[in-house]
Amino acid sequence: MTAQTQPNHELRPLPLAGLRVLDATHIVAGPFCAMILADMGAEVIKIERPGRGDQARLNHPFIQGPDGTQVSARYLGVNRNKKSVSLDLRDPVAKRAFENMLRVSDVLLDNWGPGAMGRLGYPYERLSDINPELVYASISGYGDSDGLRGPYSNWPANNPCVQGMGGWMATTGTPESGPQMVGDNMGDSVPAVWTALGVMLALESRRKTGRGQHVDMAMYDCMAAHTTSSMPLYQTSGQITTTARENMFSAQLTLRASDGYVVLAGAGNADDKWRAMWNLIGRPELADDPRYLGRDVSGQFYVTNIVPIIEEWSRHIPKRELNQHLLDCGFSMGIVQDTADLDSCPHLEARNMFIDSGDTYGGSFRTVNTPIQLTGCVDTPAFPPPTLGQHNHEVLCNIGGLTPDELAKLEAEGKA
After folding, report:
1. Dihedral sign computed on CA atoms, order 287, 289, 295, 298
2. Measuring CA to CA, how many Å separate 56 from each of 31, 48, 113, 181?
């Protein structure tokens, strides 16, 4: 987000300025959620295991520092604009610091799995006793709160598991390949966004009532909620959407270009568009056949009859030129882009969708920005992700209530 000055208005602070979030999460889902809140102005304090830190710090690929140390690029991607403290929450002194922090915080995030906080002595009831206004958001595979546990609640989960369970893999891939994951960590990032929304709704409830609550987020629930075409189809017809071509709702065609692919969507029963295209590629006679105007044909007909004819022409044309030709015919079009295309995309640049938050060594590290354009607010911050325990003294000897000697003792014992 980059602020844009509005006439006769001064830019306002980011909406979550003054909010304090304790981020006791790791890997992707929890940290991504916390980063959204941090980008919107919240003070986010990442609580990590001493010595090791967030598991994501150990994930390839790595950036080498000038002193021979290294930092995970995957960690950098979801942890900007945060502070870091290292605490062993099994230690009594560390527990005291943690509880002091809870008393003056608004939100606690946790994605360590079912019952993890309870095993440390902090079930929701205890958290609520410490701070009745606290919003506690837990992200687990299948949900973990009283009255909402199901037969899968104790199962471990990760991105591939919940993509499969949530119905996404059944519709992704080809009949030949079988079910496939959607690329990247969608099983983590989708629940992360829902959790950020859940936190904000719970904070609004707190504003009205003065009471916090447990926001119980299941990755499985979040993925199932996105079956916005396949589930209504099943409810009305009993038809199960698979990767089979006949399950296309309308023309959703991937077309080969000379240097990649373009995608054409939603062109069923669009006579004028099809006529324009058949004229463009030199096959006007096909417009006399209603099947080649997309009228009441199956997905398989598109794949076996229509696509090969288009590709006789399209495979000789660069993807951006091809995309423009079909836009000019009136189709809804897009280019199939990889990460290199995204990184050099002039439109994303114009939308301020990249941010350089640094690599913690003083070097550059470019990440994708939070896509919330608050045009009346100041810019999103761009502080580098923290090194492990970077803010121990600042946080633990302040809101944590520890003395410098107590902190030094914890650090010497490997507990901070």
Report:
1. negative
2. 10, 11, 16, 21
Closest of 358, 361, 372, 398 to residue 43, by C-alpha: 398
356 membership: H or E segment, kind and range: strand 354-356
Under a CB-based contact definition with an 8 Å cutoff, are residues 92 and 84 in contact?
A: no
Structure tokens at 58: 């150990």
Query: For residue 11, which of 21, 1, 25 has the smallest C-alpha distance?
Result: 1
Q: Do 355 and 382 form a contact (C-beta atoms < 8 A)?
A: yes
The per-residue pLDDT for 294 is: 87
State whether residue 54 is helix, strand or coil: coil
How far apart (Å, rounded) are the C-alpha atoms in residues 396 and 98? 8
pLDDT digits (tens, 9 = 90+) for 358-382: 999 999 999 999 999 999 999 999 9
pLDDT on residue 1: 47
In the prediction, which pLDDT does 246 show? 59
- CA–CA gap between residue 199 and residue 42 (Å, rounded): 12
Per the CB < 8 A criterion, the answer to whether 41 and 17 are in contact is yes
**In contact, 27 and 54? CB cutoff 8 Å:** yes
Rg of the chain, C-alpha, whole Å: 26
The arrangement of strands across the sheet holding 214-218 comes to 82-86, 43-48, 20-24, 107-110, 135-140, 214-218
Q: Which residues in the chain come in under a pLDDT of 50?
A: 1-6
Q: Nearest-CA neighbor of 380 among 14, 12, 11, 75?
A: 14
Distances (CA, A) of 218 to 161, 300, 314, 398: 12, 36, 44, 34
| Whole-number pLDDT of residue 224 | 98
Residue 313 DSSP one-character state: H
CB 396 within 8 Å of CB 98:
no
- Distance (Å, whole) CA 48 – CA 318: 48
Single-letter residue type at 338: D
Quick one: tokens of 9? Answer: 């208005």
